[in-house]
């Protein structure tokens, strides 16, 4: 066994860790840029296919279909439009008004271009927390809403505040968080932005306890999933929303809170 890690002083290990993280971030940015270019060249208009929306994950799509067919949803709110694939998929599948925000001016412009032929979309370029605060005083106030949270991309992780705003301003809601670690299935990918910023159950437990939220993970194993095989978690307000989710075969409730 190598003993280098025990001999390297902290001031050497820390720069190495930072370089590793920067390389990983650069690789992710390059992949993201490639996807954006592909969207502009290959699919300048949104086209509904099996590989588009929810990372191309068919099991995830079945979860979404079960939720909107079981729970009465008045509107859909998305944070993190990106290039508009999931936005377009939810619009053509659910046929509900969709409100989506994107922090990046470039991706906001690209999504507006690709989704311009779809009806019922409200796209804004702004911070997700500002967006949710605005909606809490506007069009979707008091309505039953499906929230899709996918704005976790930069060093500033807005997830805690996003969930807090939703729980404090809506009584009937379901939240799906993308890129989340499935505690007992390492085959699902998830986002990790460093200490205290990994999308794991440890980050979620205080939020679920504080706001009395039911927590659900995909029932399908990662080996059954298609596409990018990214993990997700579904949260719901207590009462009829949580009761309905508990009956879905595509979800399993997490009770270890």
What does it look like?
The protein has 257 residues and is an alpha/beta fold. The chain folds into two domains: 4-42; 54-253, Rossmann fold. The chain is 42% helix and 15% strand. The protein contains nine helices and eight strands. The chain has an eight-stranded mixed sheet, sandwiched between helices. Strand 2, helix 5 and strand 3 (121-124) form a beta-alpha-beta unit.
Gist of the model:
It is built from nine helices and eight strands. Helix 5 (105-114) links the parallel strand 2 (98-101) and strand 3 (121-124).
Mean pLDDT: 89
Query: Can you tell me the CATH superfamily of the largest domain?
Result: Vaccinia Virus protein VP39
Rg measurement, Å: 19 Å
Q: What's the count of strands?
A: 8
Kindly estimate the percentage of residues that lie in beta strands according to DSSP.
Answer: 15-25%
CATH class of the largest domain: Alpha Beta
Q: What is the general shape?
A: globular
**Based on the structure, what is the oligomeric state of the protein chains?**
single chain
Helix % is 40-55%
CATH architecture of the largest domain: 3-Layer(aba) Sandwich
- CATH topology heading of the largest domain: Rossmann fold
List the secondary-structure elements in sequence, H or E: HHHEHEHEHEHEHEEHE
- Termini separation: 37 Å
Q: Can you summarize the main beta sheet?
A: 8 strands, mixed
